[in-house]
Amino acid sequence: DAGVTQSPTHLIKTRGQHVTLRCSPISGHKSVSWYQQVLGQGPQFIFQYYEKEERGRGNFPDRFSARQFPNYSSELNVNALLLGDSALYLCASSLDPSPSENTIYFGEGSWLTVV
Amino acid sequence: AQSVTQLGSHVSVSEGALVLLRCNYSSSVPPYLFWYVQYPNQGLQLLLKYTSAATLVKGINGFEAEFKKSETSFHLTKPSAHMSDAAEYFCAVSGSGYQKVTFGTGTKLQVIP
After folding, report:
1. Which of A22, A29, A43, B33 has its CB 3.0 to 4.6 Å from that of A37, i.e. a possible disulfide?
2. Which tens digits make up the pLDDT trace of B36-91?
3. Could you tell me if A30 lies within 8 Å of chain B, comparing CB atoms?
4. What are the φ and ψ backbone dihedral angles of B71, each rounded to 5 degrees?
5. CB-CB neighbors (< 8 A) of B98 in chain A
6. Cβ–Cβ < 8 Å for B44, A106
7. Chain centroid offset of residue A95 CA
C-alpha cells in the first residue's frame, strides 16, 4: 500500500510569491496534519484536518492556510512568502486525529526554499 | 500545554555500545509520549509510544523507552548500537483526544565503527 505522498518534493520560490503543497494520505485515513521543520529544529504543528474540517491550528500567521478535500487529500497554501518560510513541510495522516490511539504516518516532505 | 526537552543535540557512540538519548517532558495532563526517527532526506518514522499501558515501552529496531513520572523523563535506549541507527531522533508529546503532537529539537546520533 502507498504511504503518505507529498508533492512537489523540492521547489524554489521568490519572496512574495505563493506556494501550494499537496498531500495524499494513506488509503482509509481521514485525518491529515501539516508540520513545518526548519533546518536543525523539530517539526512544528501548523494545521490538522479531519473529515474536511479544521480541528487544530498552530501558531502560524494567516499567510498559512490549508484545506482538505472529499477524498481526504489536502493542500497547504502559503502566501507572501518570506525567507523564513524556507523549510521542510511534512504531511502526516492517521485514521483519526487522536495521536494516543492512532499511529501517525509521515510523508517524506516537500522542501521549500525561498530566495 | 505540553513540551519536551531533549538533552544533547548530538550524541556519538561506538558500534556495539549502549545508546541513551534523553528526553524530559512537561505536561499539565497525563501525557502521551513518542519517539520518532528521521533518516536523512526522509520523513519521520514512529519508533515507539507511551500511552499509559506500561511504563517500559518496546519499539522497533531494538529500541525501548521507560516512562518515569517522578523524573518526568522518557529516555530512549538500545543495548547495542548498529551503524544503521545513525539518524536524528525526536521525542514528542501530546495530550489525550484530538491533540497536536509537540516535538523536541532532536538529537543526532552518530555511530562510530
Report:
1. A43
2. 999 987 889 999 999 877 889 999 999 999 999 899 999 999 999 999 999 999 99
3. no
4. -105, 0
5. 48, 50, 55-56, 96-98
6. yes
7. 16
